[in-house]
Amino acid sequence: MRTIRIHVELPLAVGLELGLPAQAGEHVARVLRLTAGSPITLFNGDGVDYPAVIQAVGKRDVTVRVEAAQPVGNESPLPLTLAQGVARGEKMDLIVQKATELGVARIVPLLTERSEVKLDPARAEKRLAHWQAVVASACEQSGRARLPTVLPAVPLEHWLRELPQDGALRLALLPEGTRRAGELRFTPAGGLLVVGPEGGLGNRDTAALTEAGFEGLRLGPRILRTETAGLAALAALQALHGDV
């Protein structure tokens, strides 16, 4: 039987009776068509699943009672940050969704030399909220109880200036890269993986990355699209050094 998992941004504890937020309640009542007595699992990103039972379903609200707390231990031992050049349209949604399923710890949308997507402050705020919702939905499906962090879109140069010297391996996915996934050695700090947008990383981007200590990673002899490249790299790194 499939477990229905619902993300809520609320404190949760055993014995707590609460009303689901409007959007979650509508999904439970109108989309899933669950009724009183139905089991669901809530999570809020603290690493714990909270099995619950629906107490009542009204026209505008759903009340549930938390019955238990079950720690979830399925986070990857390899913390990876995907710094993705913002892609157009639904491509970025796909990248965010699948990166979450693959266990990424952090997603940084980057504005690079060849970025075709332009985000004014208002639009950037809306896109961030949308990507965070995509992450939550992907965690519901994949069983993760901790949500990857999604940072606001930032120019590549600004992001590089703020990077901590924490020992994380710095990699940029480049067709001319010389490093291979199998030969990498990660510290507990994990790694940073930069992927360009449509059209790839420009010369100015590559120079800035090299100056910041990034090495070129090459996956194979074929050039991958932006919506394929980062996901393929994450899958390879998780298979070789993580938990896939």
TrEMBL record:
Any single Gene Ontology cellular-component annotation: cytoplasm
GO biological process, one term: rRNA base methylation
Record-annotated Ribosomal RNA small subunit methyltransferase E methyltransferase domain positions: 74-238
Class of enzymatic activity (EC top level): transferase
Protein's cellular compartments: Cytoplasm
Residues covered by the Ribosomal RNA small subunit methyltransferase E PUA-like domain: 22-67
UniProt xrefs under CDD domains: RsmE-like
Listed InterPro entries: Alpha/beta_knot_MTases, PUA-like_sf, RsmE, RsmE_MTase_dom, RsmE_PUA-like, tRNA_m1G_MTases_N
Presence of the UniProt keyword NADP in the record: no
Single GO molecular function: rRNA (uridine-N3-)-methyltransferase activity
Superkingdom field: Bacteria
Keyword annotations: Cytoplasm, Methyltransferase, rRNA processing, S-adenosyl-L-methionine, Transferase
Enzyme Commission no: 2.1.1.193
Catalytic activity of the protein: uridine(1498) in 16S rRNA + S-adenosyl-L-methionine = N(3)-methyluridine(1498) in 16S rRNA + S-adenosyl-L-homocysteine + H(+)
Job description of the protein: Specifically methylates the N3 position of the uracil ring of uridine 1498 (m3U1498) in 16S rRNA. Acts on the fully assembled 30S ribosomal subunit.
Family named by the database record: Belongs to the RNA methyltransferase RsmE family.
The protein, known as: Ribosomal RNA small subunit methyltransferase E
Species of origin: Dyella japonica DSM 16301
